[in-house]
């Protein structure tokens, strides 16, 4: 286990749990890339942090818990749980996320989160949309398109 990189991951999630975007940003390399099932490919600290700031701003009741942190000299993993109310429906979501990291120059240069989009859509959107359509390419594309438009609008307004 690489203690320095494990501490970097812990510092990132501690800041996330405190809703401290500035402290989260200090963990990222300027050339960071981020991906997950919704925001598939974000490049650069401004866009990645724009996404985190937007999500933090829209989730007043967000709680974050991290566990199972592992780290080696160039890569690491963690599992985190996010609990929040999905704003568009008012439904409670418990999202279980596996995170992968790459490190460069003592910072996170690649961050990829993976979670079950079908499970998420059932919680966030409820029946029948989340259950019937949660796994379809059409709904995945709609979720991704809406999220990217929201991020563009958020970043333009800053």
From TrEMBL:
Residues 10-111 form the SnoaL-like domain. InterPro entries: NTF2-like_dom_sf, SnoaL-like. It comes from the Bacteria. Pfam families: SnoaL_2. This is Nuclear transport factor 2 family protein. It comes from Streptosporangium vulgare.
């Amino acid at each position: 286990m690489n203690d320095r990189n494990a501490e970097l991951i812990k510092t990132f999630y501690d800041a996330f749990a405190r809703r401290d975007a500035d402290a989260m940003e200090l963990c990222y390399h300027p050339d960071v890339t981020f991906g997950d099932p919704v925001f598939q490919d974000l490049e650069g600290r401004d866009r990645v942090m724009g996404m985190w700031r937007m999500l933090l701003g829209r989730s007043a009741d967000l709680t974050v818990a991290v566990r199972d942190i592992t780290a080696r000299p160039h890569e690491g993993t963690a599992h985190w749980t996010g609990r929040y109310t999905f704003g568009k429906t008012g439904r409670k979501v418990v999202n279980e996320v596996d995170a992968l990291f790459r490190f460069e120059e003592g910072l996170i240069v690649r961050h990829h989160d993976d979670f079950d989009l079908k499970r998420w859509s059932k919680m966030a959107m409820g029946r029948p949309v989340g259950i019937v359509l949660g796994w379809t390419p059409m709904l995945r594309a709609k979720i991704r398109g809406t999220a990217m438009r929201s991020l563009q609008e958020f970043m333009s307004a800053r």
